[in-house]
């Protein structure tokens, strides 16, 4: 009978007693997919029915393996394996089970399933961990349903405001408070911003997740250790205002062309970006939206205005602020040089989250011992791990190689890669003392 | 009693016999404005009622001054003052009397009124020109009504196709053929593409027009001589196609960002433009329209495509072709460097028209003698003069300073400037032998 252990150098090999982690994962992923398929992708609305289905499937599997299950005050599922020191802070792993509309099967569920395979294996193999281990299957991580992410984890730490609870499901119009209540969450405590869990009771938080970008495929890493979760500074709308005019009749020196000015800005930011990357900074810059004013633009009219979005992301708050400052400075420079004005709507901030340095190093050491790459990678997308990290809980993430990005049904995670990451998580959970 | 002559060096001063050209112009412009006002601007649809009103006002004034009037085969108004050599090709001046919706009072009418003042003055002052002089008040110059410009002049040279005649008035839906017929045009000959006038019978064509750009205001020229009418090469739609992706999760080296690629293109074209202007080439470059795909763009999504328009204008066909080639080359360079593709719709061409070198020099010499600036300027907008020039008729244009551009009710031509240009036209008509 095959074991799912990788060749391990310097670690006790997992005994071959017949626990089939790979088979468990394959069966469970297939079960999740079937139970929540919507014809195109996966339908698991945050604090909604498909998410509930997924949670119950996970609960059922855990119970088959003799693991204790419970619902926490925010209606997240918690699976527990008692350790040798039950009074010490416990080690938590987990991820989320909701998905964006027409989402993929692995975004979120991979982390829950990895934790489930680890705890089930310990149970099946009779391994008692030094600390109590808990797996949390979180709700409401995706912002697609309520325009706000990390609902299940934020609720645990008293971080949902009255306004948040009044947010409406984009599909049904039902409020978040109602949806949470229907799922069994303790709305009276949540609406008081009570902490439902003491951060000090959690010794560490581990989250395994598929990579949502193309880096690991491009560089050939099945598994990588995440160094931090990028924060961002954004403007939904920057307007460059110049002056419209006859495209044939106004020479270059008299133009106040909003499109040429904006192209100049983007090109300058691109060059700054290139140089800052060479200096080793973590940075991505995006203008996802750009448009001239459709009520007055024309092929033969010098564009008098153009509207665009701006986003900079980095793991470093200093880099975010420095690049934002650079952008505003370039807007002023271009404004003077081209006689245009850049007008900004409200600045939106999202703080970056650093993964715990000790845990990152531990994961890299374990990776080396397991024959896996020791490469690190930033997370560009947000994760519940940022909520735990920003509550002061030492947190770490493992990324699994995945093709075609996430938030679409073409997500493609290889089960071999998943099992490598799960093996890494297994040892990390046991090593956290 | 004041005369309207400017100080003239080396030209016979106009005798002071009481002809008040300035008064005639002021009264006539006011009459035109009142008769065709629509509450916001001026309403003179091509081959339509307001244009007819304007033509009849001009016809009435001409007849008051004893000038012969007639309608040609395209229903343009022709006013004649016989010269000393009636069998020689005649000298023609003119412009148009239609206007865009909510247009200004001077775009077109300035040139007709200038010719009228010149011929009326000769008549009033008993001056017989060497060649017969004709003033043509053209119809249908603006493309706003039938999506095609230069209708009245094109009809004269058999250049309206069956498709053109089937074009519909954008406001009423009536066909061009019907509108022309109602105005008295000889549709049977026009639809056969017959020439209604022999190009060889026209010795020269002069057109005075307000400047539609800001150059003369900025440089302080009341009058300028036009060197040529810019042609253009255009694409209504260029699509830059890259790959969409999560803005946080895809690093710079793996991006195929359509907006950054297009900004790069525009910035490179801007720099080429700047350098080519320093080399003395005539060139304007415009991207009047740009937009990411609204069905899929988002602030946090790397834009996978962007669509934009491209236009280059120049008086020189060589410059147009060279810049177009440069643009296509840069698209290929950027395509390779950034892993995107630029896709082009049909290329649209409009040929430039050169003004006649001898006439341009004559106008500059006369300007010097009249104490006016001898500056030249390209025409970025199109004019009927391009139709005459491209029929091989020596053609020239005089621009009058005008604030706030054209095609809007805020056109602002100073009557003093107009009279300076009219004085220049007067001498040019008499000097063309």
Task: Give a quick set of tags describing it.
433 residues; homodimer; six-stranded antiparallel β-sheet; alpha+beta; 17 strands; disordered N terminus
Compile the SSE list and pairings.
2 copies of one chain form a homodimer.
Chain A: H1 21-36, H2 49-64, E1 68-71, E2 77-81, E3 90-96, H3 109-125, E4 133-138, H4 151-156, H5 162-165, H6 176-183, H7 187-191, E5 202-210, H8 215-219, E6 223-229, E7 231-241, E8 245-246, H9 258-278, E9 284-286, E10 290-292, E11 301-302, E12 305-314, H10 317-338, E13 341-344, E14 348-350, E15 353-354, H11 357-369, E16 376-379, H12 384-390, E17 395-400, H13 415-431
Parallel strand pairs in A: 3-4, 3-5, 5-17, 6-16
Antiparallel strand pairs in A: 1-2, 2-4, 6-15, 6-17, 7-12, 7-13, 7-14, 8-11, 9-12, 10-12
What does this protein look like?
Chain A is α+β, with helices and mostly antiparallel strands and 433 residues long. The first copy, chain A, is 36% helix and 20% strand. Chain A is built from 13 helices and 17 strands. In chain A, the strands form three sheets. In chain A, strands 1, 2, 3, 4, 5, 6, 15, 16 and 17 form a nine-stranded mixed sheet that branches. In chain A, strands 7, 9, 10, 12, 13 and 14 form a six-stranded antiparallel sheet that branches. In chain A, α1 packs antiparallel against α3 (109-125), α9 packs antiparallel against α10 and α11 packs across α13 (415-431). At the A-B interface, β7, β8, α9, β10 and β11 of A face β7, β8, α9, β10 and β11 of B.
